[in-house]
Amino acid sequence: MTQLLRAAGLCNNSRLLPPNGESSRWSILGDPTEAALKVVACKAGIELEAEETLLPRWREFPFDSRRKRMSTVHTQAGPRSGMIAFTKGAPREVLDLCGRIQLNGNESCLDANGRAEIMSANDDYARNGLRVLAVAYKVIPSVPPVSLEAETVESDLIFLGLVAMMDPPRPEVAAAVEKCHNAGIRVVMITGDYGLTAESIARKIGILHSARPRIVTGIELDTMDEGALKESLNDEVLFARVAPEHKMRIVSTLQDMGHVVAVTGDGVNDAPALKKADIGVAMGIMGTDVAKEAADMILTDDNFASIVSAVEEGRAVYANIRKFTTYIFTSNTPEAVPFILFALSGARIPLALNVMHVLSIDLGTDIVPALALGAEPPEPGLMDRLPRDLNEHVITRSLLVRAYFWLGIPQSLATIAAFYFMYWTNGYWGQWLDVPSSGPLYLSATAMAFAAVVTTQIGNLFAQRSERVSTFRISPFNNPMLWVGISTELALAFLITYVPLFQNFVGTNSFPLINWFFLFALAPLLLVIDELRKWLVRRRS
What we know:
Layout: H1 2-10, E1 15-17, E2 27-29, H2 32-43, H3 48-54, E3 57-64, E4 69-76, E5 82-89, H4 91-95, E6 98-103, E7 106-109, H5 112-127, E8 130-140, H6 150-153, E9 157-166, H7 171-182, H8 195-204, E10 214-217, H9 218-223, H10 226-233, E11 237-240, H11 244-256, E12 262-265, H12 271-276, E13 279-283, H13 289-294, E14 297-299, H14 304-330, H15 332-344, H16 355-365, H17 367-374, H18 397-424, H19 440-463, H20 480-498, H21 500-506, H22 515-522, H23 525-540
Helix pairs in contact: 1-2, 5-8, 7-14, 14-17, 14-18, 15-18, 16-19, 17-20, 18-19, 18-23, 19-20, 19-22, 19-23, 20-21
């Protein structure tokens, strides 16, 4: 055991930093896996600094994704002068290089039964989600260091043992993966880890569900054609023991299949896949500079759940743009209908809204409420929808139908009703044609029509807070900007209706305050109508 931990601690590039003025806790510098090996060696009472002095490193063969191992060569003095090499890496790859095994300080030949026993132990560890490394060593005759090559050092090794460590996923990852599945986002694990370890972790976080998922290794990928790879990607699959070019190929194949691909990574080996992906996401804490340069986005907390939160935020932004647009478009219909009625009636129906009224709505009363919709939090169920079609525009046919017809026509009827309400309450009951088209009464009627658009837009504002979910399921107080918007548009409506300066500028006249009861009675109209539409949509889906 001591020899195993000593070798793992020396074949290592991490550093343990003791508490200092900046931190009251121990910290690490370098790879967390290597640091864990040093920690366990220190806990076992091994003085690694003293060992490094006795066995100074002479040369290193860094970890390589193809070799799947790392080796260091050290000089040793004393009666056993010469060199000693330590190797750590993937169990199967290291074991294939070993001809002997050291047990209780004694060396013996490593036969087939011994190899099978080691791999059985490795598989048991892996099934429990443990990351396993094999450690071996070799005594090298004193030769010039320039003649040493990896093939020479990493041959006829003496097997020391396996080191298993737990690298549990963060607690929030499982919930984030479930959100992805509900949102129609597929999560594929591509890892350099051993297949059984990767499968165990993938099951824990919910990436895999089937009893016998397909696990494709890098060696298998080398022999698969594009058709076979595409077929495997259509099923539940996990890729293990892969090299950088394999990641690149998987990303390219997914893109050829029409998918939008986001890739996460932290190492230099991940850079090609990060660059090739539609969205490359590098780790900000553990990620290398090369990975960060190749990525489109950097996670400052190295948390997969943050990616899902970003997807949700992106969907919310897109949905808010649609809400903003629908809200603005809805009021275009009651702005246009008076001009249509005026033209079709040969001017016998007076113009309920003039150009200044329309500008006052579009550039005045609608602005702040529309901005409030842009600040809406994600609506419930947003992450339960499938991704939208890449070719779908923000302004769709369904948006236009909802704005101009489903909501716009009732709002137009309410506006015309408010316009004539002023005439009917002043002795023109039942008359539609040949009512006054100028003078104080006409100006008051136009003010009523203008105010009707404003009040019905209040109901529209709440209706636009969601596209499918009932507005009554959303708290009316989780977006304070809504109330600022409502206050602003009502204040502007009062100024335009009752302040002479604004009356002269826009072309309105005051009307009795009691008429506001009629106007506010119209406010829920669009909300109720849209609730009916949402109910039909939910029922159909």
